[in-house]
Design brief:
This protein is an alpha+beta fold. It has twelve helices and 13 strands.
Length: 301
């Protein structure tokens, strides 16, 4: 029988109330929203919080919208946004279709209807889909604490497996993505069965400098994300550096995949051996780049 250890429970009435409870109980408290990761861990007693703080009533942590930021327009996604809401968001799909790509392959409708975007990224599971997507998009996390609101680039947000930059008396409030026209994005994944954790996955956000006539153009800027393959910070910086300024061709994308795979450190588990995962990292990076380029050129939605 899987039974959690004893815990107390409080339902937060505001973000400030939730933060005050976190400050009071410290490391013995955990925030619960969808609970699809935390509750199973509690049943196995891998997590034994003394206090659960329910944030499901905090509408101020929800919503998907485009607003003006300090450096231009931003797509803002509240931490309490359900996966199904992000999947169904026209504005999110219009600017970054990779978010829809990723949401379509997360678990099943039951999980997507309850699970939250913030809960997924704060879990920081090495096989979690949205972590790679937000990293590729160079999102920024907005974190609220007792006395301050701070922002952390997504590429500094993950400090290790199941570890993030969110402190013990802080809560993730929002994710912000710069709105940049003229690009394309894509997320591709291999899993053992529909909705399963990734064996490997890759995300690509690509902006092209058009060339004359049939010229494929050059890569003006790019962001890559990798999931479940031991990529440092869920990304592939070396492959990004290789891509910038090069022709947006199949040969370039294939070589970028090879570079990305070479810097991954996958581990063997029930989902596959290391060589297979490294091969997937390279192949999926090339596929994501290919699809993102097609979208940037208006040839695919």
């Amino acid at each position: 029988m899987q039974v959690p250890a004893h815990f107390e429970y409080q339902r937060a009435t505001s973000v400030d109330h939730a933060i005050a409870l976190l400050a009071r109980y410290g490391a013995d408290a955990r925030v619960v929203a969808g609970g699809h990761s935390l509750i199973p861990m509690m049943k196995l007693r891998l997590a034994q919080p003394e206090m659960l703080i329910d944030v499901n009533d905090l509408d101020e942590l929800g919503g998907i919208r485009v607003e003006e930021g300090a450096e231009g327009r931003e797509l803002r996604i509240g931490a309490m946004t359900r996966h199904s809401e992000l999947l169904g968001s026209v504005v999110a799909g219009e600017h970054y279709p990779m978010l829809h790509d990723a949401e379509r392959v997360i678990a099943d409708p039951v999980v997507r209807n309850r699970g939250t975007v913030g809960g997924s990224v704060c879990q920081a599971d090495p096989s979690e889909d949205l972590s790679g997507a937000f990293t590729a998009l160079r999102a920024t996390a907005v974190i609220r604490g007792v006395d301050e609101v701070r922002t952390v680039p997504m590429r500094a947000f993950f400090t290790g497996p199941y570890q993030t930059a969110v402190g013990p008396a802080e809560i993730l409030a929002e994710l912000r993505i710069p709105v940049r026209p003229g690009g394309g994005s894509a997320y591709v994944k291999v899993d053992r069965r529909a909705g399963d954790w990734a064996v490997a996955a890759a995300a690509a956000a690509l902006w092209l400098e058009p060339g004359p006539g049939a010229d494929p153009g050059t890569v003006a800027d790019v962001g890559l994300g990798l999931t479940a393959v031991g990529a440092a910070g869920f990304t592939a910086v070396e492959a990004e550096e290789f891509l910038r300024g090069r022709p947006a061709t199949e040969e370039t994308f294939t070589e970028a995949g090879r570079i990305a795979a070479g810097h991954c450190r996958p581990i063997a588990d029930q989902r596959g051996p290391t060589d297979y995962k490294r091969h997937l990292a390279g192949e999926l990076t090339a596929r994501a780049l290919r699809r993102a380029a097609a979208r940037a050129r208006g040839r695919e939605v």
